[in-house]
User: Which sequence fits this backbone?
């Protein structure tokens, strides 16, 4: 069964008047297969709230989501339903973020994966807005990600930081060669498809890992060339 069919099942379980917050609560103790459903709904729901926050009512959210997920034409309606439910839900994005934080427990890597998906969607229109930055910073705070984690993610997407390979690897400019190498190896391990699948990232979002590896390896090469 595809991820979109499983999402449709999860949404169909909502009772009259319930919002997506109820889905997050029900998936809080989800087994490994359902974690991918939780991950996908979380990215789509928060991106819908983000689009509302930056005021771009003309944004095609499904098109932006395709920066993260493979969405076949037959699955567009299912993805759009998640966006619509998030827009209609009276719960604010901070409430969503708190419930998603609780849903994934201590899974910092998975929360970073989720933030990365939001960054992909934020820049899908070619512009990174101040409102989007404020939104993502607040979500990162609720996820209990520190400033280094946030900058490491942001530096891969935002033009004013995109030329900083140290930020991409999450190391300081005075880090030793060994520290840089350890950080690079750790990020490569975390980006392995098996590791991402274990955290709940669905196969439909695996293109995200491919871009991440390209960015990580490029940053490592740039630092190596700089100190050679």
Assistant:
């Amino acid at each position: 069964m595809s991820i979109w069919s499983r999402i449709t099942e999860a949404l169909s379980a909502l009772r009259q008047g319930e919002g997506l917050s109820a889905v997050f609560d029900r998936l809080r103790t989800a087994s490994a297969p359902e974690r991918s459903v939780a991950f996908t709904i979380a990215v789509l729901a928060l991106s819908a709230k983000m689009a509302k926050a930056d005021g771009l009512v003309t944004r095609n959210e499904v098109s932006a989501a395709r920066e993260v997920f493979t969405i076949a034409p037959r699955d567009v309606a299912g993805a759009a339903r998640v966006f619509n439910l998030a827009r209609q839900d009276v719960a604010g994005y901070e409430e969503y973020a708190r419930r998603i934080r609780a849903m994934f427990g201590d899974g910092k890597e998975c929360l970073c994966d989720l933030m990365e998906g939001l960054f992909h969607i934020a820049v899908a229109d070619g512009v990174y807005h101040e409102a989007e930055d404020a939104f993502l910073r607040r979500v990162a705070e609720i996820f209990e990600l520190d400033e280094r984690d946030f900058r490491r993610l942001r530096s891969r997407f935002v033009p004013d930081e995109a030329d900083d390979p140290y930020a991409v690897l999450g190391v300081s400019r005075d880090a030793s060669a060994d520290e840089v190498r350890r950080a690079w190896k750790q990020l490569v391990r975390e980006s392995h498809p098996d590791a991402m699948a274990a955290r709940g990232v669905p196969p439909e979002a695996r293109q995200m890992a491919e871009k991440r590896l390209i960015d990580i390896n490029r940053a490592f090469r740039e630092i190596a060339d700089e100190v050679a």
